[in-house]
Amino acid sequence: MSNKKERERRREEREQAEATAGAGDRRKQLLQLAAGAVFLAIAVVLVLIVVNTSSSDGGDTELEGTAEVNQQLAGIPQSEMVLGDSKAPVELVEFGDLQCPVCKGFSEEVLPPIIENQVKNGEVKLEFRNFTIIGEQSPPAGAAALAAGAQGRGWNYVELFYKNQGAENSGYADDAFLKTIAKGAGVKNLAKWNKDRTKFLTEVEETTAEAPELGFNGTPSFAIKGPKTDGLEPIGTPSSTGALEEAIEEAS
After folding, report:
1. Residue 228 belongs to what domain range?
2. Measured between alpha carbons, how far is 187 from 178 in angstroms, rounded to an integer?
3. Distance between CA atoms of 64 and 195, rounded to whole angstroms?
4. Is residue 110 part of a domain?
5. Which of 2, 148, 203, 229 could share a disulfide with 153, CB 3.0–4.6 Å?
6. Number of domains comprising the chain
7. Measured distance CA(168)–CA(134) in Å, rounded
């Protein structure tokens, strides 16, 4: 065999060997990439499982507005569902449903100046009474607020519920949600709170029956009592903070 043919034969053998080795390397790389992808997929699934498990635990759900509510109510005395000095000359009563979006609006837009000024100054005490008209979850929610009020955290419960209110009558206000609000509101004895909820359903029924007797057919509705009123007088749904302030002044 000539030297030329011998060189060509060796070159072909070398190229074939390199091709075979290259294919093996590529296969090895593909296997490594595939293994990495599988590992990443497993990691993602595990993360999702952890996140979903945390989210489904009623006690771990993150709440909005906790610090804001605590700041708003700091230093104001609470007794059951009454916010403010028990000796305040004027009593302002709100009949509301915790699922009511209009009540949420009043909580965030109309009542804060009253709480910051007249309530903090000892001129007015503000009471929340349940008028449960939205749906089947409204009475248990109202009873949960009353149970929090038995531990001096009733208004924290009401305000924090409004901050985290879901779509009206959508089923969000289940036991897990109510418990989460109780924790966020600072209810210390959750076992007692949970036990008390049932017995407060009767009070929810009573105040819900009281509201129509005052002429109310929607929420929120307000009534006021003071030195210049004839007992507890209905004032309906004031259009603004200014309208509430006028009612307070007239009752004083």
Report:
1. 66-251
2. 12
3. 26
4. yes
5. 148
6. 2
7. 8
